[in-house]
């Protein structure tokens, strides 16, 4: 009882082989697309690795790159096989390789599916990494004289300008850290010293934000200093003013950006997976129908093609017994129902005297 | 004595036709590139038309789009000609179209040359429009409540951030303009009143710049206000400070961007001209080689191909005499008309 049996005439087989050849080459192109998507994601993550804490999120683009390259190789081989399958004599070359090739490709498509699912699951790890990373970046904003951190100010400023965001969750995050270096604070002034003494850690905190938080859509020139002090500015009320600074937090902005990329990539990978699966099904049908043709002997006759020779349960049993028979006896053809009596003389050991001789002597 | 003649056998003719066919399709691709460059340039001009006073000339991108489409059409037809030329039947059908087509291609090359000149000359126009437009943009920066100018602030801020520039010539242009609207000035404050009265036009001028002039690469937080007052900020000398705000003027920055685009377009047009000239020359060789076949029934015979039937000077002389007789023919006919009238 074969699974999904289909009859194939010679012309149908030839057509199937040609279509599969074209589809395999299209799959090579999708493999290249997967590879470049993985590369693009790797570059985008690397561009902002200063703002992300040390979390291992590079495994997603690395997996996509590997999957893309393997897809190219597998489908290139598949294309070559399908090209040769039109001719039954050339098929003999590939006959032994085809079944292992199909099994390998099946497991590979599972990898592709896992890759697609990983794209969607990266979201939570990325959020954590961004939260920690942005907090660190804002803390070291003022350290433009320390090697290794001197470009953090530039990075954070360009991030806030480009993504139209301010701070980690919002602009108030800047009120809790000292973002002006002590090098630029006049320690002889009374108000500076007062401010430094006003909190436990001796930090110069103020209700001001860097210039990169300024909203370009605001109708009035940007108010960066004394943001919460309504009387410091004419006709200003900070509770209702929402166009002066960027209201969105940078963590949310970056997360949205990366989630958007990941969703597009995940969708592409899913479509690729479906495509690969359909190509694999076609190749399996081609393989079984060509093998049946060889069994029948007449290359122009009709033949059956199927997905599995026996039903799913039988196939599972066969695979299990294949595993067991490797331990006991390999001469059973994998079917434990057949009782094959042992006829080989080599089975007699030194203690096994043939029964006929014993009877004669007694 | 034909000008630059070459001998062709069947193989050479076939090779010439194939090579020419590929060149024509390359020219079609170049035509598509020119078309998309024209659209890109038009969009770029439109994007920043506010800082150019909405006055910029769209002549170059419009011509570029036209040239791109023409190039695609002409070269696709040329490719078809080459493809059909080796089939004697199809070639005899196409023969009458060859001469007008080649004249059209020469005219197209002249148009390309005109466009190259325009690309290099219109840069002056862009520079002047930019200068005027930026001056007005800075003046109207504060008018975010005036309809028609309410987005000037946003556009100018975005331009200064994107092109890393400040002001028209440099940041001091902001000192001469009131860029804070009166709506946000407390007129009851003495400081404000003093400043407004301190100049003839009653403008609130100060030595400050908008936040979009700030350089993110500066090691210290941006100093926007009291730029020329060293004592207003700790450890600050405005004469030596280079990283605080952008030093370049926006006119220079935006102009070099557009100038770069126009120069690249000019270079591509020169390449297209050379390609087109090569195509026309190749087509002339192919057509003459096919026409001068001694035995049209035998495709294997040798033939000769040339660029001009007579020598270069003789062809010029012929052309001049043709132009003269064309002019004179009109006069002779008029003269003849009058004796007829007199006779009757």
Automatic annotation (TrEMBL), chain A:
Please give the organism. Poecilia formosa (Amazon molly)
One GO cellular component this record assigns the protein to is: plasma membrane
- Transmembrane ranges, per UniProt, are 20-39, 59-78, 99-123
Q: Where is it mostly found? A: membrane
Superkingdom as given in the UniProt entry: Eukaryota
Q: Name one GO biological process term.
A: visual perception
Where in or outside the cell it occurs: the entry states: Membrane
Q: Which Gene3D superfamilies match?
A: Tetraspanin
Which family does the record claim for this protein?
Answer: Belongs to the PRPH2/ROM1 family.
- Renumbered to this chain, region (Disordered) spans 326-362
Keywords, comma-separated and alphabetical:
Membrane, Transmembrane, Transmembrane helix
Protein known as: Peripherin 2-like a
As for membrane topology, the entry says: Multi-pass membrane protein
Polar residues bias locations: 326-345
UniProtKB/TrEMBL annotation, chain B:
Q: Where are the transmembrane segments?
A: 20-41, 62-81, 101-130, 255-275
**GO terms for biological process, alphabetical:** cell adhesion; visual perception
- Family that this chain belongs to: Belongs to the PRPH2/ROM1 family.
* Organism field: Poecilia formosa (Amazon molly)
Q: List keywords of the entry alphabetically.
A: Cell adhesion, Disulfide bond, Glycoprotein, Membrane, Transmembrane, Transmembrane helix
Protein name as it appears in the record: Peripherin-2
Q: Where in the cell is it found?
A: Membrane
InterPro entries hit by this protein: Peripherin/rom-1, Peripherin/rom-1_CS, Peripherin_LEL, Tetraspanin/Peripherin, Tetraspanin_EC2_sf
Main localization is membrane
Q: How does it sit in the membrane?
A: Multi-pass membrane protein
Cellular component terms (Gene Ontology):
plasma membrane
Name a Pfam family for this protein: Tetraspanin
């Amino acid at each position: 009882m074969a699974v999904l049996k289909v009859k194939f005439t010679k012309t149908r087989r030839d057509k199937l082989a040609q279509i599969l050849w074209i589809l395999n080459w299209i799959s090579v192109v999708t493999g290249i697309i997967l590879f470049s998507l993985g590369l693009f994601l790797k570059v985008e993550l690397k561009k902002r690795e200063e703002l992300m804490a040390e979390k291992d999120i590079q495994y997603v683009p690395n997996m996509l790159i590997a999957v893309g390259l393997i897809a190219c190789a597998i489908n290139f081989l598949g294309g070559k096989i399908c090209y040769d399958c039109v001719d039954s004599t050339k098929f003999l070359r590939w006959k032994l390789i085809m079944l292992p090739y199909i099994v390998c490709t099946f497991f590979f498509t599972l990898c592709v599916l896992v890759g697609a699912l990983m794209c969607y699951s990266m979201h939570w790890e990325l959020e954590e990494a961004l939260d920690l990373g942005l907090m660190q970046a804002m803390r070291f904003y003022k350290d433009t004289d320390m090697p290794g951190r001197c470009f953090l100010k530039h990075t954070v400023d360009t991030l806030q300008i480009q993504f139209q965001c301010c701070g980690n969750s919002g602009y108030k995050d800047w009120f809790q850290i000292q973002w002006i270096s002590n090098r630029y604070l006049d320690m002889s002034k009374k108000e500076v010293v007062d401010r430094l003494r006003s909190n436990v850690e001796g930090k110069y905190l103020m209700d001001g934000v860097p210039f990169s938080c300024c909203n370009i859509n605001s109708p009035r020139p940007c108010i960066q200093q004394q943001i919460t002090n309504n009387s410091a500015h004419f006709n200003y009320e900070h509770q209702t003013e929402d166009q002066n600074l960027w209201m969105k937090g940078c963590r949310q902005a970056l997360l949205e950006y990366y989630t958007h990329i990941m969703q597009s990539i995940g969708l592409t990978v899913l479509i690729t997976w479906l495509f690969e699966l359909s190509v694999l099904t076609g190749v399996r049908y081609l393989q079984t129908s060509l093998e049946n043709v060889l069994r029948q002997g007449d290359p122009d006759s009709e033949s059956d093609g199927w997905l599995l020779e026996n039903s799913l349960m039988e196939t599972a049993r066969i695979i299990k017994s294949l595993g067991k028979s490797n331990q006991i006896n390999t001469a059973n053809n994998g079917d434990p129902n057949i009782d094959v009596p042992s006829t080989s003389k080599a089975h007699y050991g030194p203690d096994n005297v043939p029964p006929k001789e014993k009877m004669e002597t007694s | 004595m034909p000008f630059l003649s070459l001998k062709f056998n069947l193989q050479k003719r076939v090779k010439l036709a194939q090579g020419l066919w590929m060149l024509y399709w390359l020219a079609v691709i170049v035509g598509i590139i020119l078309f998309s460059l024209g659209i890109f340039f038009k969009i770029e001009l439109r994007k920043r038309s506010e800082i150019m006073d909405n006055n910029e000339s769209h002549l170059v991108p419009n011509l570029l789009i036209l040239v791109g489409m023409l190039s695609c059409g002409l070269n696709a037809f040329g490719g078809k000609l080459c493809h059909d030329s080796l089939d004697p039947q199809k070639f005899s059908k196409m023969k009458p179209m060859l001469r007008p087509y080649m004249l059209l291609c020469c005219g197209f090359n002249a148009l390309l040359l005109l466009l190259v000149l325009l690309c290099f000359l219109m840069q002056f126009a862009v520079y002047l429009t930019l200068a005027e437009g930026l001056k007005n943009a800075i003046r109207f920066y504060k008018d975010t409540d005036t309809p028609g100018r309410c987005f000037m602030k946003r556009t100018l801020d975005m331009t200064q951030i994107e092109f890393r520039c400040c002001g028209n010539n440099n940041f001091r242009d902001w000192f001469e303009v009131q860029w804070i609207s009166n709506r946000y000035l407390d007129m009851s404050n003495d400081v404000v009143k003093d400043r407004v009265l301190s100049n003839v036009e009653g403008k609130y001028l100060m030595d400050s710049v908008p936040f979009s002039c700030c350089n993110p690469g500066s090691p210290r937080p941006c100093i926007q206000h009291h730029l020329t007052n060293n004592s207003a900020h700790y450890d600050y000398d405005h004469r030596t400070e280079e990283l605080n705000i952008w030093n370049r003027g926006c006119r220079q920055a935006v102009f070099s961007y557009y100038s770069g685009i126009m120069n690249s377009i000019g270079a591509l047009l020169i390449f297209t001209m050379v390609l087109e000239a090569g195509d026309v020359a190749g087509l002339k060789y192919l057509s003459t080689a096919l026409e001068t076949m001694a035995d049209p029934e035998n495709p294997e015979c040798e033939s000769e191909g040339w660029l001009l039937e007579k020598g270069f000077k003789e062809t010029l002389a012929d052309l001049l005499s043709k132009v003269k007789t064309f002019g004179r023919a009109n006069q002779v006919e008029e003269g003849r008309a009058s004796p007829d009238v007199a006779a009757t």
